[in-house]
Amino acid sequence: MYRKIIDCVCKANFGEYYQTKSSQTANTDTDLALQSHHAVGYCKMVRAWYMDDSNADQRETHMLDPPVFVSLDELFEKCGVEYMKFNADTWETNVEFAELRKKRGYTYEDLCEISRETLPDYDNKLKNFYTEHIHSDEEIRFVLEGCGYFDVRDSDDRWIRVEVSKDDLIIVPAGIYHRFSLNTDNYIKVKRLFVGEPVWTPINRPGADDHPVRQEYLKRMQSC
Prior knowledge:
alpha+beta
C-alpha cells in the first residue's frame, strides 16, 4: 500500500518550499501512476518552463521573456511526464521508493555519471543525448548528484524544459519526443531504472514519426 504523506504543491515562483498534508491512499497501480507526478516528501519544487527558440548554448536555461512556467499537473497532462522526489542519500531504505520499483516492475538498474572526466566519448555522447528522439520503453532517471535538463514536446510540439537535480526522479513515457542536456555545471549522476533488459538505441526524429510506440503514445495522450 502506497501512502502519500506530503504532497508538494506547485506555485508560480517554483522557488520556495510548500507542503500540504494528505491521507490519500493508493491501493492500485493506476492510483500510484496518477499520484507519482507529485513529489513525495518535504521538498523544493522542480522547475519546468516553455523554451525559447534560441540556438545559444544548450546548457543555458532558454526561458521565454517573460518566463512561462509549467506546473507538475500540466506537465503530466500535456506530456504524460511523471515526477517524484526521494532523498538521494537514503533511497536504499526508503519504503516508497521500493514500492515504486515493485509497482512499476523495475527489475534492472545501473548508474550513469556524465562529466568530461567520467563519460567516454563525452562530446559525441552529449550530442546524441541532445538529438530529438523517442524510446520504445519509458525512461526513468533518479538524480543522485548534479543537475541537468530533460526537454519534452507537448501536444502542440512545443518544447518544455524540465530542470532536474539531486533527489528528483523523472519518468519520461515511451513514445514522447525528448532530449537531454547538462546545465553549465557540466555534471550529473543518475540511477537508471528499467523494466527488464534495457534497450539503449534511440529512435530519432523524423524516423520515429510512424513508429508503433509513437502512435500508441499519441493515442494515449488524446484519450486523456
